Amino acid sequence: MSPPTPRLRRALLVLTTALAALLCALAPLPAAADGPADTDPADTARAAGDGGPADWTARPAGGGADRDARPYVYLEGTPGTALQDRLAVTNSGRAPLTVRLRGDGRAGAWIGFAADTVTVPARTRAEVPLALTVPPDAVPGDASGEVVADDGDEEIRVPVRVRIGGPTLAALTVEDVEISGGTIRYALVNRGNAMLEPRLAVRADGMFGTLLDRPERPLPLELAPGRRVERTEPWPDAPALDAVTVRLRVTAPGGARDEAEASATYLPVAPAVGGGLLVLGGLALLGSGAYRRRRTRRGDPEPPGAESADDRQPTTETRPLVKAGPLVKAGAES
């Protein structure tokens, strides 16, 4: 195989440089770090609208003023018992209001109402009795749910908390830890039978020391038994070039504790690829030059099949002319 000509080498060098520049231009910019976006649905009082309806409300009964109202229905009992409470529906509008009531979630499925549909006159407050029956086979610990009041256009959700008597177990795990750019992703799972308020600590170590060390802090959620929540932890100053190990530690009241870790390598993709192409192009040029110099020093003969200049010149062959005479037929003499 003959070495590339000077023109071909120049073309290869230009093509390699263009590819490296194109890769650098197409490299994506670092994405902005995502903040924690997970919220606990149990902390949301209304399912539609930011402020909810302006002419009616639903909340646990009790307390004369709104500021004294209970934030949720809280009941305690043992398996098999029926617990009583009341829901207050206030119609501040000028027309009668009809709402439908239902339970939602684990504890919501245990709730029965004195009436599933309630009509409240204008500028009137009505209290609806409700009964929550704890199943006989319920596991001791905490259970949660919601009471949903719906008027056809808007709905209000009232949280329900139930403490079931008996031995409790606080168990919490952190799972599926992943590192993606400036974001750490993980999942929390309540493996026990008690309501948990988890706390999180984050640490990241690189090749030359600690890169991130966030002390333990409470997370803005309540984790019901059996519930799994996926969350993100922002890391806006993640390294551009390093091999890191991230460790997450979670705790909760009652002795719940767990740790998990994940590793990742940070490497600038575009500069690495572009530099690699340039190095390959340079090596190709050096190899071609060395090959030609070695052939020149050794005085290697021309490859087989090559013809010299003399061999390629046409030749003319001169032959003496022979004059044809009469044909004589040989025969026997008489």
Verbal overview:
The structure is a single chain. The protein is of the alpha+beta class and 334 residues long. Helix content is 18%, strand content 39%. The chain has four helices and 16 strands. The strands form four sheets. It has a five-stranded mixed sheet with strand order 2-9-8-4-6. Helix 1 packs antiparallel against helix 3. The radius of gyration is 43 Å and the shape is elongated. The C terminus is likely disordered.
Task: Give the helices and strands, then pairings.
Elements: H1 6-26, E1 56-60, E2 73-77, E3 82-91, E4 97-104, H2 105-108, E5 111-113, E6 117-120, E7 124-133, E8 141-150, E9 155-164, E10 172-180, E11 183-190, E12 199-206, E13 209-218, E14 228-234, E15 242-252, E16 256-266, H3 269-298, H4 309-312
Parallel strand pairs: 2-9
Antiparallel strand pairs: 1-3, 3-7, 4-6, 4-8, 5-7, 8-9, 10-11, 11-14, 12-13, 12-15, 15-16
Q: Would you report the number of β strands? A: 16
Helix/strand/pairing category = alpha+beta
**Overall geometric form:** elongated
What is the average of the pLDDT values?
Answer: 78
Rg is 43 Å
Helix content: 10-25%
Largest sheet: 5 strands, mixed
Spatial arrangement of strands, main beta sheet: 2-9-8-4-6
| Low confidence ranges | 29-53, 312-318, 320-334
Q: List the secondary-structure elements in sequence, H or E.
A: HEEEEHEEEEEEEEEEEEHH
Strand content: 35-45%
| Tally of alpha and pi helices | 4
Q: How far apart are the termini?
A: 78 Å
